[in-house]
Design brief:
heterodimer, A: 375 residues, mainly alpha, abc type-2 transporter like fold, 2 domains, four-stranded mixed sheet, 15 helices, 4 strands, B: 312 residues, alpha/beta, Rossmann fold, Alpha-Beta Plaits, four-stranded antiparallel sheet, 11 helices, 38% helix, 29% strand, binds adenosine-5'-triphosphate, binds magnesium ion
Chain lengths: 375, 312
C-alpha cells in the first residue's frame, strides 16, 4: 500500500521544483510577508530624532531634556534657535519631533505655576506621531511626578504616589507588538502555504487531465491525498521554522516554551490547512477558481477571525461563534502560550482538542468528496 | 476461460437529459484490434471511459477481463492500460520521470522497472530523450510516450482513445505497427479513431452515431454487407456542379465527394458510364476519367450515415 506513496511524494517535489509560481508562494511569500508585515504592523517607534529649542538653557531645563534622551526613545539631533526652524527641519525630515522649552521654565516651576512645554511632531505617519506624542507624555509626566515627589518630600510626605500608573504597557516599551505579531504571522503564512499550495496542486491535475491517468491507475485515493500532503507539510514546517528564526533575529522573539509541543501544534495546524486545501480542490475545477477560493479561505479567517489582528472578545456574539471556522484561532492561542508565555500543556490542551475536532470534520468531508470525484 | 475479453451489454450514459451513449452492445475477443468509429461527439470517449471504470454507466453493464465495470471498477483498472484522448502525462516531468512514476505506481520492482523502461523507450522510439521535459516533445512523440506508459505494466487489455490525433501520417503508420505488435502478443486493443483508413487495420469495427451503434463487423464484412452495388469514381473539373447534377439522376443511387472526385454508386455499371458521358457533354462537366473502384470503408460509412440521416 505504501509503495505507491513514495513515488507520489517524489513526483510532487519535482512539480514544486519546476513550478516557479508554487515555489514563489512557498518561499518568497512567507519571508516577504514576515518582513513586510513585521515592520508595517510594528507600532514601536525608536530612535526618534529630537530637535531641542531650549529658550532657558538652565540646569533644570537641561535635566528635562535629558529625561527625554535617557528614556531610550529619543535621540538628540539638533539644538534649535527658533520655532520656525523647528517646523522647517521637520518638513525636511531632518528631525521627527521638536521640543520647545519656554524661557521661564524654571521660574514657573519654582513658583508653583504650570509650565507649557511644546512638542512638535511630524504627522506624516499618523500612527508613529501618536506613539511619539505618547512617549513625550510619559517622559513629561514622569518628570513632573519627580518634581511633585520632591516637593512632597520637602513637606515630609515622601514617596507617596496616590495612583500608580503603568504607561509602559500601552506605549509598548518592550516591543511587545512585534512579539505578539510573529505568532500570528506564522499562522497566517502556514495557512496560506498549506491551503493554496495543496489545492492548486490537486486542481492542476484535474485541469491538465493528468488526474484521469491517476484515476485509471491502481493508486488509492488515500495514498494520493497523503502523497500530496506530505511534501507541503514538510515545506510548511520549514517555512514555520524560518519565520521563527527570522522572528528571533528581526524582532527578538525568543521561544520560551517547549519545542516539542510547538512542533506538534504546528503540525496539527498544517494538517488543518492541508485539509481545507483538499476541500477546495474538490470544489474548484480550475486553478484560477482554486486560487481565489483558497486565498479567501486562508487569508480572511486567519486575519479577521483568528484574533490575530482583532481581539475575539470584543466581537459581537455571532462573530465570536463564527471564529471557530478558523483553525488559526486555536493555533494562535497555543502558539502565544508556548512562544510568548512559555506555559505548559495544561494551558492549551483544550485548543489542541478543538484543532483535532476541526481537522476531523474537514478531513471527513473533503476525503468523501475527493473519493467521489476521483476513483 | 472464454475468449471474450470485453462484453458490453446495453451500456448507456446520460448526462442530464442528454444521452451520450445509447444502449450499446458488443463483444471483443482476446488479441483483437477493435475499432471504434464515429464523428465528433458520437460517444466514443464516453464509452471508453465507462469501460475503464472512470465513469459509472447510467444503464446497462459491461465486463472487462471478467470484471463488472460498475461493481468492480478497481479490478478493471488493475488489468487495463488506458491512453486518454487528451494528453495526460506530466508535461513538467522528464520522459524518464514519467515512466518511473507510472512504473512505481503499478508496483514494478527495480529490476522489472528497468527492463520495462528500456522496452517502453524502445517502442516509443525515445531513446536518448530520457531527460527531455515531456512538454517540449512534438505531439507524435508525446503520444508514443503515452502509449509506452499505458502498457508499462503489460495489461491484457488496452484502451486507446484517438491515439493518432495530431500525429503526422508517417508516425501514424509506426503507431499502428505498435498496435499490431501488441495484438500479436495477445493484448486486446480497443481503439477509437477519426481516420477511416486506420479502421482498415482493425479486425473488427463498430460505427457509432449519436450514441448508437449503426453498423459493425470486420472491414471486409462491412464492405460486402452494405455496398452491394458498383461504385464509380468520376474525375472532373468541377466536382460540386457535377455532384448537384448527378445527384438528381434516377440511376445514381448515392453520390459523394471525395476530394477532387466523386463516388457514385449505381445499379448498372455500363449503363451509368453512358449516362455520365452524356451528362458531361450536355453540361460541359469536363469528365476526364470514370473508373469502377473497390469500395473503401469511407464509402461504407458515408453510405451508412446517409441512411441514418434519411431516417431522421
Ligand atoms: N461530463 C459530461 N457532461 C455533459 N456532457 C458530456 C460530458 N462528457 C461528454 N459529454 C457529451 O457527450 C457527447 C459524447 O461525447 P464523447 O466525448 O464521448 O464523444 P466522442 O465520440 O469521443 O467525440 P470526439 O471525437 O470529439 O472525441 C458529446 O456531445 C459531449 O458533449
Ligand atoms: Mg473522444
Amino acid at each position: 500500500m505504501f509503495q505507491q506513496l513514495l513515488p507520489i511524494i517524489k513526483k510532487e517535489f519535482r512539480h514544486i521544483r519546476r513550478d516557479k509560481r508554487v515555489l514563489a508562494i512557498l518561499t518568497f511569500v512567507p519571508a516577504g510577508l514576515l518582513i513586510l508585515n513585521g515592520y508595517a504592523l510594528n507600532y514601536d517607534v525608536n530612535h526618534i530624532k529630537l530637535g531641542v529649542y531650549d529658550q532657558e538653557k538652565s540646569e533644570r531645563s537641561r535635566e528635562f531634556v535629558n529625561s527625554f534622551l535617557t528614556s531610550g526613545y529619543f535621540d538628540y539631533a539638533e539644538s534649535l534657535t527658533s520655532s520656525a526652524q523647528a517646523t522647517t527641519m521637520i518638513d525636511d525630515a531632518k528631525i521627527r519631533a521638536a521640543l520647545v522649552i519656554p524661557p521661564d521654565f524654571s521660574n514657573k516651576i519654582l513658583s508653583n505655576e504650570p509650565v507649557d512645554v511644546q512638542i512638535l511632531v511630524d504627522g506624516m505617519d499618523a500612527n508613529a506621531a501618536t506613539t511619539i506624542i505618547g512617549y513625550a507624555q510619559v517622559v513629561t509626566l514622569e518628570y513632573s511626578q519627580k518634581i511633585v515627589l520632591n516637593e512632597l518630600a520637602k513637606m515630609g510626605r515622601g514617596n507617596y504616589i496616590p495612583i500608580q500608573y503603568d504607561a509602559r504597557i500601552w506605549y509598548n516599551p518592550e516591543l511587545k507588538s512585534a512579539k505578539f505579531l510573529v505568532p500570528g504571522l506564522i499562522g497566517f503564512i502556514l495557512a496560506i502555504t498549506a491551503i493554496i499550495a495543496t489545492s492548486l496542486s490537486i486542481v492542476k491535475e484535474k485541469e491538465l487531465n493528468t488526474m484521469e491517468q491517476i484515476d485509471v491507475s491502481p493508486i488509492r485515493p488515500i495514498n494520493l491525498i497523503i502523497g500530496k500532503m506530505v511534501p507541503y507539510a514538510l515545506i510548511s514546517l520549514v517555512a514555520a521554522t524560518l519565520v521563527l528564526v527570522a522572528g528571533y533575529f528581526l524582532f527578538g522573539v525568543v521561544i520560551k516554551g517547549n519545542y516539542f509541543y510547538l512542533f506538534c501544534a504546528t503540525l496539527l495546524f498544517i494538517i488543518a490547512g492541508l485539509s481545507i486545501g483538499l476541500l477546495v480542490s474538490t470544489i474548484a475545477d480550475t486553478q484560477q477558481v482554486a486560487f481565489q477560493l483558497a486565498a479567501l479561505l486562508s487569508m480572511l479567517p486567519t486575519i479577521i477571525l483568528s484574533g490575530f489582528m482583532f481581539p475575539i472578545r470584543s466581537m459581537p456574539w455571532w462573530l465570536q461563534i463564527l471564529t471557530n471556522i478558523s483553525p488559526a484561532k486555536f493555533y494562535l492561542v497555543i502558539l502565544r502560550s508556548i512562544v510568548l508565555k512559555g506555559v505548559g500543556l495544561s494551558a492549551f490542551w483544550d485548543q489542541i482538542v478543538y484543532l483535532m475536532i476541526f481537522i476531523s470534520v474537514v478531513l471527513l468531508i473533503s476525503v468523501r468528496r475527493f473519493k467521489k470525484t476521483i476513483g | 476461460m472464454s475468449d471474450t475479453v470485453i462484453e458490453v451489454d446495453h451500456l448507456t450514459k446520460k448526462f442530464g437529459k442528454f444521452t451520450a451513449v445509447d444502449h450499446v452492445s458488443f463483444d471483443v475477443k482476446r488479441g483483437e484490434i477493435f475499432g471504434f468509429l464515429g464523428a465528433n461527439g458520437a460517444g466514443k470517449s464516453t464509452t471508453i471511459r465507462m469501460l475503464c471504470g472512470l465513469l459509472a454507466s447510467t444503464e446497462g453493464t459491461a465486463r472487462v477481463g471478467g470484471f463488472d465495470i460498475n461493481k468492480e471498477p478497481e479490478k478493471v483498472k488493475e488489468n487495463i492500460g488506458y491512453m486518454s484522448q487528451k494528453f495526460s502525462l506530466y508535461e513538467d516531468l522528464t520522459v524518464e520521470e514519467n515512466i518511473n512514476f507510472y512504473g512505481r505506481v503499478y508496483g514494478l520492482s527495480n529490476h522489472l522497472l528497468k527492463e520495462r523502461k528500456e522496452w517502453a523507450l524502445e517502442i516509443a522510439n525515445l531513446r536518448g530523450r530520457e531527460r527531455s521535459i515531456t512538454g517540449t516533445l512534438p505531439g507524435g512523440w508525446k503520444q508514443r510516450l503515452a502509449l509506452g506508459c499505458a502498457v508499462l505494466h503489460r495489461p491484457k487489455t488496452v484502451f486507446l482513445d484517438e491515439p493518432t490525433s495530431g500525429v503526422d501520417p508517417v508516425m501514424r503508420r509506426k503507431f499502428w505497427e505498435l498496435i499490431n505488435d501488441l495484438s500479436a502478443e495477445g493484448v486486446t486493443v480497443l481503439v477509437t479513431t477519426h481516420f477511416l483508413e486506420e479502421a482498415e487495420y482493425c479486425n473488427d469495427i463498430i460505427l457509432i452515431n449519436a450514441g448508437k451503434i449503426i453498423a459493425g463487423g470486420s472491414p471486409k464484412e462491412l464492405k460486402s454487407n452494405y455496398i452491394k452495388t458498383p461504385i464509380l469514381e468520376v474525375q472532373c473539373a468541377n466536382v460540386i456542379d457535377a455532384m448537384s447534377l448527378i445527384e438528381k439522376q434516377p440511376w445514381a443511387l448515392e453520390t459523394s465527394v471525395f476530394g477532387t472526385h466523386l463516388h457514385v454508386s449505381v445499379e448498372n455499371e455500363e449503363a451509368a458510364r453512358g449516362h455520365i458521358q452524356q451528362l458531361s457533354m450536355q453540361n460541359g462537366l469536363d469528365v476526364t476519367h470514370v473508373e469502377k473502384i473497390i469500395p473503401s470503408l469511407e464509402d461504407v460509412f458515408i453510405y451508412l450515415l446517409d441512411q441514418e440521416a434519411k431516417k431522421n
